[in-house]
Design the sequence.
């Protein structure tokens, strides 16, 4: 039914679920998936494990990622995660989503998330067109 109506299946979780998430996504290639917050919900600094599993997921063309939610990742530096996601998914499959309610609840300034994403794109030398994909065009394409 999800694929029939063109719905997007949002996956939220922690890095220890990523291998199972990858299996699910691979078994359902006609469903559009969005990995929210890079599957880093209270994940902690587990970059190597996270990156290995995300590489597998990025090979699946039906998957996009939401770069938001940094305030709940529990990492010292979000840049390696953001940069890796942008590299392996590309600007066409990355977007930014509002997480304002969690930002407010955790006393985190949501604009900090936007600055972190912008910084990662600048580090990679993203053009204005590539940045525009992350800021709006990917979400518009995915959600209509």
Sequence:
């Amino acid at each position: 039914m999800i694929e029939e109506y063109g719905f997007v299946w949002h996956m939220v979780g922690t890095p220890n679920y990523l291998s199972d998430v990858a299996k699910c996504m691979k078994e359902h290639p006609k469903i559009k998936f969005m990995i929210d917050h890079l599957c880093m919900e209270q994940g902690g600094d587990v970059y190597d494990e996270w990156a290995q599993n995300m590489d597998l997921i990025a090979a699946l063309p039906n998957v996009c990622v939401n770069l938001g939610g940094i305030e709940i990742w529990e990492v010292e530096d979000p840049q390696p995660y953001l940069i890796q996601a942008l590299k392996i998914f590309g600007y066409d499959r990355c977007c930014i989503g509002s997480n304002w309610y969690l930002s407010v609840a955790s006393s985190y300034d949501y604009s900090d998330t936007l600055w972190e994403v912008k910084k990662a794109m600048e580090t990679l030398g993203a053009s204005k067109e590539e940045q525009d994909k992350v800021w709006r065009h990917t979400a518009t394409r995915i959600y209509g």
User: Anything to note?
Assistant: The radius of gyration is 14 Å. The domain at 2-143 is CATH 3.20.20.140 (TIM Barrel). The beta strands are 8-11, 32-35, 63-66, 94-95. Residues 128-143 form the longest helix (16 residues).
